[in-house]
Amino acid sequence: MENKKFYITTPIYYPSDKLHIGHTYCTVATDTLARYHRLRGEDVMFLTGTDEHGQKIEDKAREAGVTPKEFVDRIVEGPGGVLDLWKLMNISNDRFIRTTDDYHVASVQRIFRRMYDSGDIYKGTYKGKYCKPCESFWTESQLVDGKCPDCGREVQDAEEEAYFFRLSKYAGRIRDLLENTDFLEPRSRVNEMVKNFIDPGLEDLCVSRTSFSWGVPVDFDPGHVVYVWVDALTNYITALGYENDRYGDYGKGWWPGVNIVGKEIVRFHSIIWPAILMSLGEPLPKKCFGHGWLLLDGGKMSKSKGNVVDPYILAEKFGVDALRFFLMRTFPFGSDGNFSNELLIQTINTDLANDLGNLVSRTTAMTGKYFGGSLPAGCADWDGPESCDTELREAAMALRSAYEKDMESFAPHTALADVFKVIQRANKYIDENTPWKLSKDMEANGRRLARVLYTLLETTRICGVLLTPFMPGSMEKLFAQIGATAGCRTWDSAAQWGALPETAAVNKGENLFPRVEMDKALEELEAAAEAAKQAAFRPDIEIEPQLAEKVDFDTFCKSDFRVVKVKSCDAVKKSAKLLRFTLDDGTGVDRQILSGIHQWYEPEDLVGKTLVAIVNLPPRKMMGLESNGMLISAVHTEKGEEALHLLMVDDAIPAGAKLC
Ligand code: ME8
């Protein structure tokens, strides 16, 4: 029988700045769910990616002096970028889509055309308000105090010829989807959507722009680019192969999938996205889950507020799994939560160091000390059961089904709470049985001691299996310590008492979750955040400081700067650097200048250019050739490398014109 297929996605991130802990939260949560479904033995496709078009990116690239593609490449693929962060966080995505990928661009064009051909997209005039940072159009009635209802920032008047999507046509079906199915969760978000968007009347949506060009071009109407949200939302199906031949996975049982999104983009995912799919006649997503935000001091994190929390710093300091765990354990998935370093450290100390860490280290240490690392065969049923054995065993056996219910209802925080109840019960069981006292008389109590330790190892194993989606790396280590081989790390084995062989090789390894000293760690975090801030301020471009020493005007006037035209240019033989220029300097006699700029320019690209040279330097010989003057360049350092630009002036200036 074919395995069940499960397709799950994160939002695709805007690579306009480095990602922060809020983005990490969303991706870790989705990764945890994906890993949970894999643990169950399902075939999982987990998609994440980046949403790279739009005016915001175009503006940022311009500010940075690079092309939009260069700009996004740096943030997606560069050091410390999106791909690096997901690798660090042990994100197990099967596919990564960039909306600038050729296949996606072509698919979006086909989708747009199909909707146009079917009459669902038509041409009209857009009049309204536009929020640039959110890339969202709003009607007057949707504004809050005249400002963008999402981010509270100023909006701009906008009027232009544009294409519209007949969203209004789908209002009834969308209302039905929201109100009468469990498509959107948590259910509180349904009321929000209906009250704010459906009840006031769903208007047609402007789906093209002409005021900027960094987007997917509408192929049948040059000058228009596809609205970035149409481009972005369709990634969930183009990444499977919808309207492209890069992948052949569309129609193979993956779609419809589950879209996990942050609360502020639920509107796009629960109204516009299903309407696009309705228009295309494709199945609607199985689920849209809108998670809450991580807040800082009660407010949203944002680069502009300068209060973003850097996941790199936290992962480096506390370990990736501790950070993953904290995010999933502390904040109910559908609600907002207040992030703080104190809370993070407290959670690590209480749950990981005290509860789980202690259980594992005490159990493995005692198995080593009293039984040389391997319990006797048959010990699972010796001397008992006492009521505490039965209680712990039943709690461990009941865990998987409670956990499953929690995970299926998108409540990973509750699943963890359930696991930790069992871990706490197991620690209590140690105190109830005082193995160190039993060990004093092994002849009388050795059998009981073995049974107690087996009960603990088995409970630890079951909890370990269920914690794997949350902390995959650490659970590998835990399994190695308790001697759990592949067969007893499975989903099935999490509901089977006795899967761990009694004689399994147990060895106390490194401490899985060391305690964190609060004050010291807080201080170090602050220092690291400050250092990161300073580094972020270090300009990419460095220029030489200006000279303090003054020159008098007469000295300055002695330098003769002239406009020159390049008649020919070639590389000097046996020199890696030198170019030889033959220049028209307006005198009627060719001037030869040598310049060490081959690293930056190819000679053929310079022929015909109008440059500036100082012409009254004494002649100088280089590689046996005479140079009469020097071409003027602008120099600076870019990311530690020297950059040079020849000073090129308007071609209308005649050769020989004097600069003064
Ligand atoms: O919205 N807490 O991209 P994005 C929790 N490109 N989640 C947070 C958060 C926080 N403090 N800050 C951001 C976009 N997020 C679009 C998506 S999908 C077709 C296009 C979440 O990079 C946010 O809620 O601005 C969103 O779900 C995700 O990060 C990406 O945000």
Report on the architecture of this protein.
The protein is an alpha+beta fold. Helices cover 41% and strands 18% of the residues. Strands 3-2-1-11-12-7 form a six-stranded parallel β-sheet, with helices on both faces. Helix 15 (412-433) runs antiparallel to helix 17 (442-467). The structure holds ligand ME8. Residues 11-14, 22-23, 25-26, 51, 232-233, 235, 261-262, 264-265, 293-294, 300-301 line the site of ligand ME8.
How many helices? The count is: 20
What value does the average pLDDT take? 94
Find the count of extended strands (DSSP E, 2+ residues).
26
Strand order of the largest sheet: 3-2-1-11-12-7
What summary fits the major beta sheet?
6 strands, parallel
Low-confidence stretches: none
- For the termini, the CA-CA separation is 85 Å
Keywords:
26 strands, six-stranded antiparallel sheet, binds ligand ME8, 20 helices, single chain, about 650 residues, globular, alpha+beta, six-stranded parallel sheet
List the helices and strands and how they pair.
Blueprint: E1 5-9, H1 21-39, E2 43-50, H2 55-64, H3 68-77, H4 82-88, E3 95-98, H5 102-117, E4 121-131, E5 136-138, E6 156-165, H6 171-180, E7 184-185, H7 188-198, E8 205-206, E9 208-209, E10 225-226, H8 228-233, H9 235-238, E11 258-262, H10 266-280, E12 287-291, E13 294-296, E14 299-300, H11 311-318, H12 320-330, E15 337-339, H13 341-371, H14 387-408, H15 412-433, H16 435-438, H17 442-467, H18 472-482, H19 518-537, E16 541-542, H20 553-557, E17 561-571, E18 579-584, E19 591-595, E20 610-614, E21 620-622, E22 625-627, E23 630-631, E24 633-638, E25 641-646, E26 658-659
The structure holds ligand ME8.
